Amino acid sequence: MSATTFPAFLNLPSELRLKIWTYLLPGPRILPIRFSRTTKSYITPSAPPALLSISSETRSLFLAHYTLLQLNPSYDSTIYIDFALDTLFFEHEDCSPGGDLAADLRICEARDRIERVAIDAHLWEILRLFRYDALSEIRCLTGLKNVALVLRRGDEDADEGLGFFTGNEIRFERCLPSQERLRRMFFEGPATVEQEISQCRWYVSTVKWELDHGSGFEWKNGEPPAVQMWLSSTYTAFLDAG
Q1: Is 46 exposed, middle or buried (0-12, 13-18, 19+ CB in 10 A)?
Q2: What is the pTM of this model?
């Protein structure tokens, strides 16, 4: 018998088989959320759960822990989530069919079950151009326990030479033609890591202040969600901005 096979597995008691299959449950994940214009559905680049396709037994086990997430009921989804463990990460402009993430979350049937949300700091800036309210995307998520703004400095940002503006001007160069971004880059120079961190901290402080001083909130946990800043290119490390 091969060291990688165990033909007698199917003869084991079902309770024992399920205990073994449980070790294949994904555990806590950070799920990047995208809307595919091709398939007209919500997708994630995360690998599809293996338990869904092994057998009916493993599929039933998986679905006992995970729920198919439909952010907008008008569109399909391939995203399965364990609300108690997983974090939804909105990391790109293509996270909404209509470009209005707040509107999608308001009509999401599972909005009161979502506990953890992360939003790319650059995307958050763009969203503020259309909805000034800093809490637009989270005020309807009454079960929220944690929200994070994610600051990344990956190859894409380095290649584009993205920079921050000063004063009250909101950074929106990702909305600009490439020629305009180059012009701003030439005159204003690249942002330093310290500048980007400082700007993101200010955004986090704004969200915290709005949560602490806003009215009309009814959080399921009796208190507003924790707000953090994550500094990572792989979403694994985070820095509490408190």
Answers
A1: middle
A2: 0.77
